[in-house]
Design brief:
By secondary structure, this protein is an alpha/beta fold. The protein is 43% helix and 18% strand. The strands form four sheets. Strands 7-4-1-8-9-10-11 form a seven-stranded mixed beta sheet, with helices on both faces.
């Protein structure tokens, strides 16, 4: 370029450039290129920072594994205890070295949180429209922070039809500082229908056998169904409490200590911290097919209400649409079966 400007045929002295002028041109072009590239880099970094969750640089900075952050939170919790600060959350007092389930499974509505999502008319906000039970807070915090649970996975099994609402709430609720419930719960089966499908999916995804699982749910319809698969179920009629959490784990440890292979059964608690398990019976009654939709209710609310009132498990069996009557299966003890049959006949 310099020889073209200063050599022969350059167009005369008016067009000739000195070496100093050429240097200034090069420097100016270099500076302009630097400013141009810098502006694009700044735009990229700003866009990256605005990405939600772990997709942005804030997520990169906090991309430690759950186990690493569990150790961090454990240290922080220990420091708070030394300083006299109490989080007010109860921890299950289990014997040292006792057997613990490899997979802890929670229902959502009326087990981890309240109210039930079908009762809401708009997308709920955590701690404003929906709240975690205190017992649930303690259990989740313990699973996220206690090193004793390092070998245990957490899962969700819910039949709610408000799937996106449930997933959003799991992202917003925290099990421990910096650990969302959605992150703690590695497996999430959230869809309407029989929970047998939920647990088949959980077994396949986690590799944990049914005998190494424990399931907390507020519906006997669900617990009675899942116990037949060999899963130890814990009934939470009014949400997960510290007593139910600890009692369920204690019973699991006792059964494992006895060498129990088939863990299927449902644990329920009275007002005293005593675990009772009783043999269930079943019976079937007929309901007119034309009334079965009314009997079930929107989202199964009528059946759920009858279950809560009677203590029996109620399940509508699949029938052909042209059959005049549909069969309803009841499960429970002698008292709850009589109560459920009477309530259904009255209904």
């Amino acid at each position: 370029q310099g020889s073209e400007l200063t050599g022969p045929g350059a167009g005369g002295g008016d067009w000739q450039k000195s070496n100093g002028e050429l240097a200034r041109i090069c420097v100016r072009k270099t500076v302009m290129k630097f400013i141009f590239m810098s502006s694009h880099l700044l735009r990229f970094l700003l866009a990256l920072a605005l990405l939600p969750g772990s997709q942005g640089w804030r997520g990169m900075a906090s991309s430690k594994s759950l186990s690493s952050r569990r150790s961090d939170v454990v240290c922080m919790s220990a420091r708070k205890r030394r300083e006299g600060e109490s989080e007010g959350l109860q921890v299950a007092k289990l014997p040292k070295g006792c057997a613990r389930p490899k997979l802890v499974v929670f229902d959502l509505d009326n087990t981890l949180w309240t109210p039930e999502l079908y009762q809401l008319k708009r997308s709920p906000k955590a701690d404003k429209d929906v709240w975690l039970f205190e017992g649930a807070k303690g259990a989740l915090h313990e699973l996220a922070t206690d090193e004793a649970w390092k070998g245990t996975k957490v899962a969700i099994a819910s039949r709610t039809n408000k799937v996106e609402w449930a997933k959003h709430l799991l992202e917003k609720f925290e099990a421990a500082p910096g650990v969302a419930v959605a992150e703690l719960a590695e497996y999430k089966e959230i869809f309407p229908g029989s929970k047998r499908k939920h647990f088949q999916n959980l077994k396949r995804a986690s590799g944990v056998p049914f005998s190494e699982m424990i399931f907390f749910d507020d519906s006997t319809m669900n617990t009675n169904e899942i116990e037949t698969m060999g899963v130890l179920c814990v009934f939470c009629p009014r949400g997960l409490t510290a007593q139910i959490w600890e009692g369920g784990l204690m019973e699991y440890a006792k059964m494992k200590d006895k060498g129990t292979d088939f863990m299927g059964g449902t644990i329920s608690f009275s007002s005293k911290p005593k675990v009772t398990m009783e043999k269930l019976e079943s019976m079937r009654i007929k309901v007119p097919s034309s009334k079965i939709g009314l009997f079930i209710g929107k989202g199964g609310r009528n059946i759920k209400k009858l279950e809560e009132e009677t203590g029996a498990s109620i399940r509508v069996l699949k029938t052909e649409s042209d059959i005049e009557f549909a069969e309803v299966e009841l499960k429970g003890n002698d008292v709850t079966l009589k109560s459920a049959r009477s309530a259904i006949q009255t209904f």
